[in-house]
Write a structure and sequence with these properties.
The chain has about 130 residues and is of the alpha+beta class. It is built from 3 helices and 8 strands; from the N terminus they run H-E-H-E-E-E-E-E-E-H-E. Strands 4, 5, 6, 7 and 8 form a 5-stranded antiparallel beta sheet that branches.
Length: about 130
């Protein structure tokens, strides 16, 4: 795996397209932080970190609308990847879907959203867009 974040986003995207309720993903610290952000912002129902001998697993319960069966996550888009890193300053923080979506950033104070970065006056590497 050369890009574990892109693999994480792709596994979640594929599970949503296949209408799965739960998706299991190999764990890492960055993936755990992104999962916590998805839960805090209401894009997933729940999550569970299971540790085993080697790597561990993240179990994510995906969120759908009860009536229309549409997923809460419309799009997961990787921005910065190993061949091209996108860094932004506090003045250039992206607005996703005119403020309706979130951008996940890797900063000196950890993995945070664009809105948190703006309040803390931090810049960093833009990992992905979610809406």
């Amino acid at each position: 795996m050369t890009d574990p974040i892109a693999d994480y986003l792709t596994q979640v995207r594929n599970a949503i397209m296949a209408k799965h309720r739960i998706v299991q993903i190999p764990a890492s610290n960055i993936k755990k932080e992104i999962t916590k952000i998805l839960f805090d912002k209401g894009y997933i129902l729940n999550y569970k970190f299971e540790d085993n001998e080697y790597q561990g697993i993240i179990k994510i319960a995906l969120k759908y609308d009860h009536e229309t069966r549409k997923p809460a996550i419309k799009s997961l888009q990787r921005v910065s990847h190993p061949g091209y890193r996108k860094y932004v300053g506090v003045k250039d923080l992206p607005r996703v879907l005119n403020g309706l979506g979130i951008a996940v950033l890797s900063t000196s104070q950890g993995i945070i959203t664009d809105k948190e970065a703006k309040t803390r006056k931090l810049g960093g590497e833009v990992l992905c867009y979610i809406y």
